[in-house]
Amino acid sequence: MAPLGLRHVDKLPPFNPRPVEMQVLCLGLSRTATMSLWLALKKLGYTAYHFMEVGQPENIRDGHLFCWREALEAKLLGKGRPYGREEFDKILGQYSAVTDAPNACFADELLEAYPNAKVILSVRDPDKWVASMESSYYSILGWASFTALAFFDKTLGTERAVFELILRQWTDGDIYNRHKLREGYIHHNQHIRDIVPKDNLFEFQLEDMKGWGPLCEFLEKDVPDEPYPRINEGGNAAKIHVFLFWRQLFRLVGRWLRIPLAVGGLAWGLRWMQRRGMLEMVRKRLIA
User: Fold this and answer.
1) pLDDT for 8-31, tens place per residue?
2) Residue 258 lies in a domain
3) Minimal CA–CA distance to 34: which of 96, 100, 104, 110?
4) Buried b (16+ CB within 10 A) or exposed e, 36-45
């Protein structure tokens, strides 16, 4: 039996030493082209972590989604021991760069854990950012079916909790207050500027990111001979989670159907045996 109070992250084996060094911390909030940046970093040779990485088979096996919920609850609600270098290494040990939430929610902790990493801050107009959040986070949380099925499915319930915890941090606890959300966005960006040395910080406006040049210069990488990636615009984030939602729904329904299908199959098999006199033969052998 697991010791009382054992966290999910405590079940994961440690990386000692880390397989790769953490080299880049992208601390811009979601909806600031974090997925495009994720792909760009991969093109430049980094092993990058975006929220979508929780769906990788090995990360599903290790329960990354449950770890992030645990980490957010410790930070925001005081539930359990806060995550530090040891815990982040267990989740991010195979990665050399991070982007997007939930990582961006742990800017201070990641900067303390990986002081030698370069830092990137992606920003955009605050009002456009809030509008983009409407078509992603709030759109996803507004699905009635998501709310209902999250009650029955542990994975969907945890995913919803992670979204709400992220918004709790960015809105100071008032997750559906768009004014607080806008203020939280501005505060986060300024906080990064205040705590990261200027010579170790590359900040770019989403609208001004036209190509590879400035990013590659900051990271001291050669410019790839291909266009800078641009994906996940507008409501595409919600579309991605629609796919994940339906995949989990089919798995959930499959689990619900196992018992009735098994009972139905057993009943059909017994009826088939009865018609052929096989049940009577079995009964006679049992009482012989």
Assistant:
1) 999 999 988 889 999 999 999 999
2) no
3) 100
4) bbbbbbeebe
